[in-house]
Fold each of these.
Amino acid sequence: MSNETEARRHKNVVYFERGELDYVLQTALSTAASDSAAIGEVFYAASRIDEKERDLQSWIREWNAVGKHVEGIAQRCLAKGHKVSAREAFLRAFNYYRIATYLVRVDDPSYREAVAHFRDCFQQAIALFDPPFEKIEIECDGAKLPGYFFKADKSDEPRPTILFFAGGESFCEEVYIWFGPAALRRGYNLLAFDLPGQGITALEGLHFRPDVEVPVGAAIDYLTSRPDVDAEKIVASGVSYGGYVTMRCAAHDNRLAAVSASTPLIDFQKLINENAPWLAKVPAFAGNAAVKMLGRIDPFAMVVYEKFLVSCGVSKPSDATTALADWTVDVQQIGCQVLCMVGAGEHESFQWQARTAYEQLKVPGKQLRVFEVADGADAHCQANNIPLGTQEVFDFFDEVLAD
C-alpha cells in the first residue's frame, strides 16, 4: 500500500502538516464569509489539536468544545431576544460540530447523535431568518431525501433558482454555508438536499448511484411546482462529487439553463483509480484487513475511506471501484452552457477531468477557469477561497440568464 493515502487537494499549507486536516481547516476559515465561522475560534480549536500523535479524539474533542462554547452563546443571545446574534452563533456552532463529526467513525455509536446535534443547531439558526428557511423532502423511488429551500425574499415572485451539490461526504446543511448568502444576495432561491449516499442516507439503505439524474430530476419537478421559482431559470452547481452530479444531470435533463462544476468529473472510476490506486489492488479477501492497516498508517485517511465505502454500499475496497464503473458522463450530450473550474493545487487527475470535459463540450459559451495559488483559491472546490469561487459561479449564471 502506498504511503500516499490521500489525494492532494491544495498546495499552500496553512497550519497542519497532514493535507486532509489542513484542507478542512482552510475550508473552515473560508466559511467565515458566510458568518458560519470566526477566525479566532477556528485557530483556537486548531491550536489544541495534536496531529503528530495521529489522535482522532483530539480533533473531535477540540472542535466539539468550541461548538459547545458557541452554542452556549447562541442560547444566551436567544434568551435575551438578540435574534441576529443567536442566528450567527447557532450557524457557527453547527459548523464546528460538523467539523468534529468529520473524523467520527461511521460505526461509532455516537455518530448519529452527533449528526442530530449539529442538525438541531442548524435548524435553530434557519428559524431565525426572515423569512425562515424551509425544511423539505424530495421524494424519489419511494424514499424521502431531506433538504432545505432557501427563499430569496418574502414575495412569491418567480426567481432564478440554483441547485447546489456538495461532496460525497457532505450534508445538505453545509450547502448554506458554502452558497447560501451568495445566492440570496443576488436574488436566487437555493435548493439543497441529500442525494443517496450523502448525509446519513447510507445508514438508511440509500447508497451512491450512477444515475443521479433520477433524484435530481425529482428535485427539478419539485421546483417547477413552486410559484416562487422561474422554471426557465433553474441552474445547478456542484463541487467535488457534486461536480459529477451537475455534469451528469446536464447531459440527461434539458431543464437546466446552465451548470457550473468544480471539478467537472466525467469518469469517476478513473479518478478514484488515479487518486487511490491501492483500492483496486487490494485483493477482495483482504479488504477489511487493508482498511485496518490503513488505520495504523494514517487514521485520518482511514475514516474518510470507511465513510466512502459505506456510501458506496460495499465493505471491501476492491468492490468500491467496481461500483463506480457506470459513473461516467457523455459530455457531448450536454446542451446548456457550462463553467468548468479547477484549482491549480489539485491532483493532476482532477485537472485532467476538468480540461477533458471542457475540450469535449460542444456548446457555445463554455468556459474554463483555473484558480492559481496567487488567487488564494488553488484548493479542491476553491475551499480556501469560497467567496471567489461563488463570485465566479454567480457572475457566469447572471450573464447566461440575462441573454
Amino acid sequence: MTFIDYYKILGIEKKATPGDIKSAYRKLARKHHPDLNPNDADAKRKFQQINEANEVLSDPEKRKKYDKYGKDWQHAEQFENAKQYQEQPSDFRGPEYSRAQSGSDFSDFFESMFGGSSNAGRSRQVKFRGEDYNAQLQLNLTDAFKTHKQTLAVNGKNIRITIPAGIENGQTIKISGHGGPGINGGPNGDLYISFSIANHPVIKRLGNDLYMNVEIDLFAAVLGGEITIDTLSGKVKLKVKPETQNGSRVKLKGKGFPVYKTDGQFGDLYITYSVKIPTNLTERQKGLFTELSNS
C-alpha cells in the first residue's frame, strides 16, 4: 500500500488542532467538490482523498494510529498483538503455525516492526482484521435531503443502513464491522460506502445552499404579486416586488439543504427570477404596449 500523507493533503501541520483540520477540510472540499468541477476527474480524485484524510485525522483514535503506523494504521491492532507476543519469553509461546491465508501477505509490516519475518512465522496464531469492503450508492437530491433508511446487498448479505440528511456527492461513510470476516478470530473489516448524487432537473446544490431559477410573467415583474414555488421542503409562497428586474436574485434564509449531522441547521435557498416576455399578442394588446412606451 502506498503511503498517503493526510496532513499534506489537507495542507496542515502534524500538530494541527481539530479546529484546524475542520477548517482546512471545509475549504478544500468546497474547492474540489464534484458539483463545482463536473468534468474534472482530477478534482473528483482530490475530493475523495480530502474526505479520506478528514475521516482519519478528525477521529482522535484513528489519528493516533495513523501517526504511529503510517500507511498500515488500519492494522494497528494486529501490530500490537504481534508485538506483545514477540516480547513474551519463548517458553510461553504456542506451537509453530502456518501463516493465515487471507489473500494478503502481512510479511511486509511484520518485517518493518520486528526487523525480519522469521520470528513472525514462528509464533502462535495472531488475530488479523478482516478486509474492508467498498460500495457505491446512487441517490437523488430529494433522497439526500432527508434522513432515511436503505437496504444494501453486500456479498450476499442485506445490510440496513441509515443515511443522514445532508450527505454530499462523493462523500464516503464507514459502517463498522460489515466488511470481510477476521482471521483467527480477529475483528471483521469495515464497509465504506461512497455516495453518488444525481443532478436535480431544477434545483442546483452547492454545499448546503440551493439555487433555482423561477419564471415570472411580465405583469408580476412590473406590478408585483405573489407566486408559489416547489422546493425540496414543500411549496413556498413568495412575494414578488414591483419592478423586479430579469435576473434579480432573492435569498430565502434557512430554506436550503440540511447541514450533515447537525439537527435544525440548513443552508439558504437562492431564487433567480426570469421574466417571461408575452407572445402572440393581439393587436389591441400591442396597441396598449405602444401607448405605454409613448407615455
Amino acid sequence: MICRVCDSTRQDLAIDLGKQPWCNHFLKEEELGTEPYYPLRVVYCHDCGAAQLDYTVKKEIMFGDHTYLSGVTKSLSDHFSNIAMELDKRFFIGEKSKSVLDIGSNDGTQLNHFQGLGWTTQGVESSKTTARIANEAGIPTLNAFFNRETAASLNQKFHVINAAGVFFHLEELHSVTAGIRECLRKDGVFVVQFLYMKRIVENMAFDQIYHEHLLYYNLRTLQQLLSRHGLAIFDAYLAPIHGGSMIAFVTHQDRGVVESDRLQRLLSAEDKEGSNTLDTYLQFADRIKQFKIQNLQYLNAARQAGKRVWGFGAPVKGNTMLNFFGISRTLIECLVERNELRRGLYAPGSHIPVVIERELTTLPDIYYVLAWNFKSEILERNKSLIGQGVDFFFPVNPRDA
C-alpha cells in the first residue's frame, strides 16, 4: 500500500486483529448475521514512522450516518468546555468577534461551549442524524464531508479550527489538511485533539484500534503530515480524556514557529522511548495476545461461578475488544448504554443486545466496563451500585481516565 502520510510503499505488518465488522454498525434484529467483515490490521511505515490501517472502509459507509453522540458523556462535555475557555483566554485577546470552525462537529457539543463565550461558530459534520441534532439545537452545521472543496465553499477564514477525535479518521487526509490551511487565518490556530498512540500502547488500549481510525499519531508522525502542508505544531499537552489524548496547537509554518518547552519534552520522550519504531508495535501486538488470554480466563471463571456479567457501555471501540476476544452472549448477556439512539440494537459481530440504563429493573453481579475511558465518572456515578455489591471490572485501566 501507499503510506497515508508520506506516500512511501515501505510498510510492514505490526498488529493484526483479524477480520472484524465495522464497529459503529449497531444492528437491528433483522440484520443479525448480515454484517460484512473487513481486515483490521495496523502497518508501520519505515519512512515516516506512521502507524496506520492497511484497509479502508469507505467514509460514506462509516460516517454517512451513525449513532455516536458527543453530548451523552459529562466528562467529554466538560473537556470540551475547558478547551473552549483555554482558547478564549489564550488567543486573540481583545478581539470583539472571534470565529471557530469545528470539523466533525457531531452534535455540536464543542461548539455550544464556544457559543457560550460569544464566538461565531460553524460546524461541518458528515452524519445526517447528528448534524440535524446540532442544527435543531441552534449550532450552525453543514452536513458534508470536510475537504478542500468544502473549505472553499465556506469562503471564510477562521481564528480557530478545531478537530476533536476526527483527524485520524480521514480518508481524504491531504485534501482535508489543505482545506484547513486555506480556512485558517494567517494568525489562526488549528487545534488537533487526537488519541495519542504512545499512550494507547502504554495503557494496553488496543480497542482504540478500529476501522474508523485510519491513522494512529504520535507527535513526530503528525509533524510529518503537517509539514507537507505548510503547517507546524508550536505547543502540545496530554489531556486525560479518553485515557490520554494529545491536544496539539498548530499554525502556519511561515510564521516562524517556536516550539514550546513542553512540546520539546514530549518529542524527546517519544525519541527516548522508541515510540515511533516497529519493534515497539510488534511488542504491543504480543502483549495484546496475552491480554486476550487473561480476559477470557476472567470471564470464563465468572460464568463458571454462576455470576451474571453485563457490559457497561456500548462504545464503538468496545466492539474491537469483544470481537477480537470472541465474546458473545454466553459470556456477556447485554450491553448497558445511555445513548438512546442505540435502543433495541445489537453489537456488530458479537450480537450482544444493547439495553438502556434508565430502564433496568435488575442488576448484574459484574459490570465489564467497555467504556473504561470514562472510569472516574463511571465510578462516581455508580457509588450506590458498588455499595450494593456490583463489581465494576475495567479490562483497561488507563493512567488517565
